[in-house]
Design brief:
Order of helices and strands: EHEEHEHEHEEHHEHEEHHEHEHEHEHHH
CATH superfamily of the largest domain: Glycogen Phosphorylase B
CATH topology of the largest domain: Rossmann fold
CATH architecture of the largest domain: 3-Layer(aba) Sandwich
Number of domains: 2
Strand order of the largest sheet: 3-2-1-4-5-8-9
Largest sheet: 7 strands, parallel
CATH class of the largest domain: Alpha Beta
Structural class: alpha/beta
Shape: globular
Amino acid sequence: MKILLVGEYSNVHWTLAEGLRALGHEVTVVSDGDGWKNYPRDIDLRRGPVGSTRSTLRYFFDIARVWPQLRGYDVVQLINPVFLSLKAERLWPFYRYLRKHNGRVFLGAFGVDYFWLKVGMDCRTFRYSDFNIGAELRHTSEGDIWTRDWLHGPKGELNLRIADDCDGIITGLCEYEMCYRPFYSGKTRFIPFPINLSDITPTCLYNPGEKVRFFIGIQKSRSAYKGTDIMYSALLRLQADYPELTDVQKAENVPFEQYQQMLTSSHVLLDQLYSYTPAMNALMGMSKGLICVGGGEEEQYELLGEHELRPIVNVQPSEQDVYNQIYRRLLSGDEDVRQLQLDSIEYVRRHHDHIKVARRYLDFYASVC
């Protein structure tokens, strides 16, 4: 099968491509590398500085050069309704070209889009999310921009048109499944995110008697949105109360190589306070033996069909609950920290191995006539 993957989030498409290629399929990834993260791709469509006339013209030239080559694929998959670094109102013709000159077209539900905001802001579907806590909306400037663009603007209109027109929709997390299923049950399929385990080995297994080493990565611009501000505050309290048990490392806008070094020398990763599910960053950490403190609600275990392992330290969106859960599960001695690390590795192996995940994609692709 000849497969085209357009766009990138957190290395999802490149990792999926590795799995599909291992199964004998021809795959092309076209993306900007997810911006500064610079993930691998086969065809580079990275845009220069926004606002620069020269970089804008160069980007249009690059698209005009690449797009005619994107013909004759059996499957096209888009990372998001906004699959190029263009205004949403300019993207429909590029979608229609892919639709006309290729086989089946699939939409990925892997990040922020119309349905994620619509359902997150209804204050009924989720007990908490990036946009609500119970019946209360969380108001952030970033959220307000997304509301304007996605719920009441051209991004939302594009999302609805593509979701209606495409052959299938693939949801990568429990939350995205809960958002799309009520509207497109007939063509939505949940498939977990892929992690390439072929060259990953556990790097820092805990030994009884040593301090538990916690790692948290903070992006200043997104700290309040992702909840790392609350998580970090809870960590500092734990370190002050139990200095003999804890060691805290914070990475704030550090180079990627240094970030990875700090991550792999830790036992525990704190990530995404308002999530029900671990996403790519947490899953990659878990594959190396880090325990995730973040989203581990029962809904996501049920969706995966996982009835045994509970390796994630699930926390509610409050500083006190983060403090309590970390102490109870990781510092009190009631649970075996090393075993939770091994369970984390097994969890990713069972549900996120990129070859297993690629087979599920192929099954879905083939099921759509």
